Amino acid sequence: MTSARPVAVLTAAGSGSRLGADVPKALVPLVGEPLVVHALRALVAAGVEHVVVTAPADHLPAVRAACAVVGGAQVEVVAGGASRQGSVHAGLRALPPGPGDACVLVHDAARPLAPVGLLRRVVAAVCAGHPAVVPALPVTDTVVRVAPERSDDAGERSLGAVDRTTLRAVQTPQGFPRALLVAAHEAAADRAHDEATAATDDAALVAALGHDVLVVPGDPLALKITVRHDLAVARLLLEESR
Ligand SMILES: Nc1ccn([C@@H]2O[C@H](COP(=O)(O)OP(=O)(O)OP(=O)(O)O)[C@@H](O)[C@H]2O)c(=O)n1
Ligand SMILES: C[C@](O)(CO)[C@H](O)COP(=O)(O)O
To answer: What confidence tens digit (pLDDT) does each residue in 186-215 have?
Structure first.
């Protein structure tokens, strides 16, 4: 068990194409503050000491200006990569080594309302010795597999339902000892050049090295802002909680 404060990479370099705003998703306001600022405040509230924020290369000044309003941690903003995986790798390269290496959180600006209790659960599990920790929620819909043939407007052919009791929807922040996370990213660096080949989360890269991934309870507040509807839900949740 370590008592050092954790450090973090906050991914904010995505364009937000599915959201369709006129600025990158991390800069879209939610009740007065950009998504990236909400996520950064949560990391600081959980005791994170140093945060590297990844930003779109053509929006570095805007993301720096947004993050400058948050005190309580050292914050650096660097250009992200061509995929989320590439951005996390770039963030890790910019994170100076130190005692916080015992627990690195990787968090998405796209999950602005992740509560501090959730962040603390992840940190506590990493500090207790787990090599990879992810928060996740049970899946509540019935989930079916579909046939691999191309779909058309008429729909797809269902191959039947999968057992949802064993499925979990994974959130962020995810936590790892730094050396292991870096090794996992180095081993998979050739996949990071495009989203089609990149891993969709960091735990998958650590699992690919043969390590166990611990799943801890997630939180509905850690929902991911992907489409406009999510932004409306987040606004309601935030207003309700104030
Ligand atoms: N090259 C990329 C792509 C994504 N992200 C970050 O990874 C998180 C999850 O990505 P997602 O929600 O898919 O964001 P976008 O890629 O921006 O969304 P879209 O796919 O709709 O364009 C976000 O915080 C996003 O900013 C990143 O840092 N670098
Ligand atoms: C990392 C993540 O938020 C865990 O659910 C998710 O995989 C990011 O996926 P996206 O396709 O980049 O939104």
So the answer is: 999 999 999 999 999 999 999 999 999 999
Its pTM stands at 0.97
What residue ranges define each of the domains in the chain, with the CATH number in brackets? 7-134+171-241 (3.90.550.10)
* Complex ipTM: 0.98
Nearest atom in ligand 2 to the alpha carbon of residue 226 is 13
- Say how many Å lie between the CA of residue 20 and the centre of ligand 1: 13
- Asked whether the CA dihedral 205, 53, 35, 63 is positive or negative, the reply is negative
Angle at alpha carbon of residue 106, lines to 190 and 196, rounded to 5°: 35
Rounded distance from Cα 110 to ligand 1 centre (Å): 7
Contact 224 CB / ligand 2 (< 6 Å) = yes
**Ligand 1 atom at shortest distance from the alpha carbon of 17:** 22
The pLDDT tens digits of the residues spanning 134-155 come to 999 999 999 999 998 876 778 9
Ligand nearest to the CA of 228: 1
